[in-house]
Amino acid sequence: MLAAGGVGATAAVVGMRAKSWFGPDRLPIDGGYAPAGNELGWHNGTVRTVWHVNTSRPLVALTFDDGPEPDWTPRVLDALDELGAKATFFVVGERLVKNAGLVKGRYARHEVGNHTWAHKDLAQRDERKVREQLRRCHDAITEHVGRVPTLLRRRGGTSAGPR
User: Fold this and answer.
1) CA–CA distance, 90 with 74 (Å, rounded to integer)
2) What value, to the nearest 5°, has the Cα angle with vertex 53 and ends 50 and 55?
3) How far is CA 134 from CA 6, 8, 76, 115, 152, in A?
4) Which partner from 23, 50, 124, 149 sits 20 to 30 angstroms from 115, CA to CA?
5) What's the pTM?
6) Structural contact between residues 114 and 26, judged by C-beta atoms closer than 8 angstroms
7) Residues 85/62, Cβ–Cβ less than 8 Å
């Protein structure tokens, strides 16, 4: 009897928490990891997530997050230029606006993706706030890089669920 009561109480608590984790105002943007052995991606009809791409060629994909920042972004771009290498930069919109002069014309051969306006954890925001974070960064990239971004990297972490 006691065990059944404990299970019932636990289920009630989980049920109450789940209401804040899921719902029409919550987007499916949260943690987890993507080991190479898992499926290539996930698709829910509007959001496509790619974990990795099979290739027969030996390739390395270089990605840089959280910039641009004056202390490291120019050095990274200089090194890539020297090597003739390409990379993907996931920029934070407010940092891009603040440091636009550092990267003016320097992202031309690189991919530039959306990493939110202010580096916020999207899993902690409702749909309206998520859309605002993504839209503002999208607009900053379009204005300062001159291209429409097609990639998004959410803020990192290894969350197993909402915090």
Assistant:
1) 15
2) 175
3) 42, 40, 25, 8, 9
4) 23
5) 0.70
6) no
7) yes
